[in-house]
Amino acid sequence: MKILMVCLGNICRSPLAHGILKQKVKDKQLNWIVESAGTGDWHIGEAPDRRAISIAKKYGVDISGQRARHFQPAFFEEYDLIFVMDRQNFADVCAQAANKADLEKVQLFLADDIVPDPYFDDNLFDPVFQMIDKRCMEVIETMSKKKE
Ligand code: 4NP
C-alpha cells in the first residue's frame, strides 16, 4: 500500500500527516509506504515550516528530514491512495487525473471535513496536529484490517 498526503505547500499539513501516519505504520509494523506532496510549487526542496516541525516534535514525531515536493500527474500511477487536506487540494489533484481509476484514488483525508490551513494562523498548528493524529489512528485501524 502506497499512500500520498497532499496539501497546498507541502510544508504544513501534509508533512504532519506524512510523519504521523509513517510513525504509526512503523509502530504497527505494516509495510505501507507514506509520502507527501503539494499542489503548489513555491516550497520545493524546503524542509517543513518550523512551526509544523515544532508541534510534531512536541508530540514525539520528527518531520525535520522531509523535503517539499510538487504533485505530479505521474503520482497517480505510483500511489494507491491520495489523501487531500481540503477541497481546493481535491479540485487541483482531480484536475490532473487521466481517468476514472485515478479519480477514485483521491479522497478528502477527513472524509467529510477539511484540515484548515494553519500557514497564516500560528494557533492552528496544535488543533491541526490533533485532528490529523486522530484520523491517522482511524486510517490505521480501518485499513490495516483490509489490506497489508
Ligand atoms: P500547507 O500550508 O498547504 O499546509 O503546506 C501552506 C504553506 C504555504 C502556503 C500556503 C499554505 N503558501 O502560500 O506559501
UniProtKB/TrEMBL annotation:
Annotated PANTHER family: LOW MOLECULAR WEIGHT PHOSPHOTYROSINE PROTEIN PHOSPHATASE, LOW MOLECULAR WEIGHT PROTEIN TYROSINE PHOSPHATASE
Protein name: protein-tyrosine-phosphatase
Transmembrane segments: none
Keyword DNA-binding set for record: no
Top-level EC class as recorded in UniProt: hydrolase
Family matches, as CDD domains: LMWPTP
Hydrolase found in the keyword field: yes
Gene3D superfamilies in the record: 3.40.50.2300
Xref: InterPro entries: LMW_PTPase, Ptyr_pPase, Ptyr_pPase_sf, Tyr_phospatase_low_mol_wt
Keyword line: Hydrolase, Protein phosphatase
Sequence ranges assigned to domain Phosphotyrosine protein phosphatase I in this UniProt record: 1-142
Listed Pfam families: LMWPc (PF01451)
Family statement: Belongs to the low molecular weight phosphotyrosine protein phosphatase family.
Active site: C7 (nucleophile), R13 (nucleophile), D117 (proton donor)
